[in-house]
Amino acid sequence: MAQYTRVSGSVGLITLQNPPVNALSAAVRLGIGEAVQRALGDQEVQSVVICGQNGLFCGGADIREFGKEMTGPPLVPMIHAIEAATKPVVAAIEGSALGGGLELALGCHYRISHCKARLGLPEVTLGLLPAAGGTQRLPRLIGVPAALNLITTGHHVTAAEALQLGIVDQVTEHNAVDVAVKFALSVTGKPLHDRRVSSLECPAAPDLDSLFEEAMLKVRVACVQAVRAAATLPYARGMEREKALMATLFGSGQARALQYFFFAQRAVGRWSTPGGARWDTSQPRPVRTAAVIGLGTMGRGITVALAQAGLSVVAVETQAKQLTEARKAVAGMLKRAAVRRGTTPEPGSITYSDQLQAAARADLVIEAVFEDMEVKETLFRQLSAVCRPDALLCTNTSSLDVDHLASQTRHPHLVLGMHFFAPAQAMKLLEVVYGARSSPTAVATAMQLGKTMGKVSVAVGNCRGFAGNRMLKRYLEQAFFLLEEGATPEGVDRALEEFGFAMGVFRMSDLSGLDVGWRVRKAEGLAQSGLTGPSARVRQGRRYSPLGDLLCEHQRFGQKSGRGWYQYEPDPWLHRFLEEYRARHGLLPRRIDQQEVLERCLFVLINEGFQILEDRIVAGPEDIDAIYVLGYGWPRHRGGPMFYAHMVGLERVAQRLEHYHQAHPEVPYLQPCGLLRRLVASGSPPIHRWRRAIAGPHSQL
Ligand code: NAI
């Protein structure tokens, strides 16, 4: 809706009203159109101000309407009507003007922005382009290079940057609506022809063609084509081009995946557990002071992330040398982050200690000590004795049993996993692992803290590897099997990188260090040296590949030791090693194509995802997709593994898994899991219906 009032005698004030972000829904568009007509028809009104309620101008189009039949008046003619008005129209931008919101503001004759507002055209991040005149007006207003940059990256700019670029006419520290009303009074009666952005000439820029060529290589082609239309065609024809390009994008799989993922990130915030705890019935407790125990790789990053979120942090490390190094490293990270943001590092929010006692008054503790159950058990017993009885005790373990750690404490309902990803200060993902006894308040508190730290928190049940690493294990395993059968690390990585992963599985393993997994497999009794014959490739009755273990026995730990799956200097060692290994085990190498690499690695991971859903480790497919895109480099434009399965078709995923299982009966995980089979049998419902389909005893399957 949009409310119309008259203020200061002669200013028509139109206020967008559609919480939370005043999105341009059908009702809002209708309301604005009617209010503009009223203002123009009102003899007393000399100028108009458009603003949004609750200190926020407009977050953009209502994405929920995408893909549905259009209802209500379209946005483009409404913006045209505003621009064509014979009375000055001023946009009062507070909070944010994004996407359609900025396009609406660009249709106004003047733009006044509050100093804290942010402006941008983020459509490209949803696989779309700004198609309410954004690609046509912005280049005319601020020139092609700057417009191209904003449109093709989707980056937001601050009010100060917007002023410098020429997007807004004035920035104020005061109430932007009041300032805009005064401004509107001051421009009453002034000519408007050079204030209508669509009638401006696109400012000339040198060497436009090479700019477009370069941008085409780097960025989304459709946005570039649309902006090129602004630079070369009259406005009306540019608008036609924009519309046609948008129509082709709307139907693309990439746009559907990006829009799905946009909502998936929000869906994970509405968490629930099989025990009945829910986001809307559980109250988080305030966390002001947090303690971090163990200042290695992870502890340092977690300390930085907590401090940046405005918490007081007590950082504890028992090794004197590590403590000194950590202190320096944390200060360096905070300084670099501050430089990037153009601020000064906040002093005094971190205190360091070599005594656990220092954590005594913390509201919440996150331990990041060695991945060793005995070390962690002892620590949890100590923490339980030292800390406040109501303190939340969290572990950053990547694989150990959270319930077992909880059982070491006096208050197991206050124990949780907070599984960060390296580098913890930068990665957006946080798995909040609840145990069998974790209280709803504890889960809500950790979920909220993750959000405060700028992370997407996903609630995950306690099982080996939680959700992310449990699926990763199957994916890695298939990659090893493919090498045994004739593939090369380069070939497997190429297939995955062409699919969209930033790094293939072997390059990623080299980067994170092969010894980490080796240590875990040794502790589990899986990695055993000296085995020969058929037993070398079987564990617990299933196919097992010792390739990763053998590499470590050759001191190849990845990038840290200069060599892993790749040599960081030319050396044919690995290929010779694989040939000898295959010969030793009587494995006949065959040619493996990219399709098999993708299907084996990705479908087995997806199959484990369905098993995780069936085991109720997460509440819905969005949780898994958020984890994989934000924590494991799954390409965002493919929506996440579960969305990808939905796009490929569940029947095909199940058929291909079945096919590979028949070829490799000794790999049980290749067999389509029960849930996947039941979903296929029930006609492969679309992804948004899976949650309902899974829901326990009421399952419709
Ligand atoms: P790290 O070896 O770099 O650091 C561990 C630190 O804990 C060392 O500085 C050590 O001196 C200290 N420490 C050990 N016992 C202690 C005690 N009782 N009190 C205080 N400090 C103690 O290990 P990293 O890589 O930081 O891993 C820590 C935890 O985070 C592990 O549980 C690991 O599984 C988990 N994790 C690691 C990830 C990674 O990529 N490195 C990713 C996600 C989780």
Automatic annotation (TrEMBL):
Pathway: Lipid metabolism; fatty acid beta-oxidation. The keyword Transmembrane does not apply. GO terms for cellular component: peroxisome. Keywords: Fatty acid metabolism, Isomerase, Lipid metabolism, Lyase, Multifunctional enzyme, NAD, Oxidoreductase, Peroxisome. Residues 290-462 form the 3-hydroxyacyl-CoA dehydrogenase NAD binding domain. GO terms for molecular function: (3S)-3-hydroxyacyl-CoA dehydrogenase (NAD+) activity; delta(3)-delta(2)-enoyl-CoA isomerase activity; enoyl-CoA hydratase activity; NAD+ binding. Its EC number is 1.1.1.35, 4.2.1.17, 5.3.3.8. Monomer. This is Peroxisomal bifunctional enzyme. It comes from Tetraodon nigroviridis.
